[in-house]
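step=encode ok
step=design start
structure_in=
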C-alpha cells in the first residue's frame, strides 16, 4: 500500500462518519435550473449510501421536466451499465447498487450527464469513491459528470491517482 492508498483509506474512515442528509427541496429547485441539468434528458443517477447526499428531490424535478433517470448496475466485467428508473419505483440491492425490479440496461456512453456518488472530492476535483473502481473504469474523460456534495466532504489536499475520476462540475451544498 503506497502513501496515496493510505491517505484514501484514512479519509474514507473519516468521511464515513458524516451522516447522510436529504437535499432540501429549495436547493434541488435551484440546482435544477443549472444548464448542466436543463440540457440533459438522459441522466445517470444513484441512490445514496452514507455519507452521500440523498438528492431524490432533484430527480423528482428533473423527471417532471422531461428528463429520464438511470441507476447504475454493476456488470460481470467490473464496469457499470445503467437502467431506467422512475423516482419512487421500488428498488432492490444488487452488487452494492440499488436497482429496479426490471432492468433495461444501457451503456454509460448513452447518457448525457452522470451524477456521480462521492465519499469526498479532493483539491484536484477528483472523486474519492468506495474503492471498487467501477466509476473510474466506466466513465471516460469525454463524459459530462457532476457531483453534489456536502462541504464536509471536501478534502483539502490531493489524495488521488491519475486513473481516478475527475468531476467536471461540483456543487457544494
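sequence_out=
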Amino acid at each position: 500500500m503506497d502513501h496515496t492508498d493510505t491517505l484514501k483509506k484514512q479519509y474514507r474512515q473519516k468521511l464515513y462518519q458524516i451522516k447522510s442528509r436529504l437535499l432540501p427541496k429549495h436547493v434541488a429547485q435551484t440546482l435544477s435550473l443549472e444548464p448542466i441539468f436543463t440540457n440533459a434528458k438522459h441522466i445517470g443517477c444513484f441512490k445514496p449510501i452514507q455519507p452521500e447526499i440523498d438528492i431524490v428531490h432533484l430527480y423528482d424535478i428533473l423527471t417532471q421536466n422531461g428528463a429520464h433517470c438511470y441507476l447504475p448496475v454493476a456488470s460481470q466485467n467490473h464496469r457499470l451499465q445503467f437502467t431506467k428508473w422512475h423516482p419512487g419505483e421500488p428498488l432492490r440491492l444488487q452488487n452494492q447498487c440499488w436497482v429496479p425490479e426490471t432492468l433495461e440496461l444501457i451503456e454509460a456512453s448513452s447518457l448525457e450527464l452522470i451524477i456521480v456518488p462521492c465519499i469526498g472530492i479532493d483539491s484536484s476535483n477528483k472523486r474519492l469513491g468506495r474503492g471498487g473502481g467501477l466509476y473510474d473504469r466506466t466513465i471516460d474523460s469525454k463524459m459530462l459528470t457532476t457531483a453534489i456534495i456536502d462541504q464536509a466532504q471536501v478534502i483539502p489536499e490531493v489524495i488521488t491517482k491519475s486513473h481516478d475520476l475527475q468531476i467536471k462540475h461540483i456543487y457544494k451544498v
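step=design ok
step=annotate ok -> The two ends are 33 Å apart (CA to CA).
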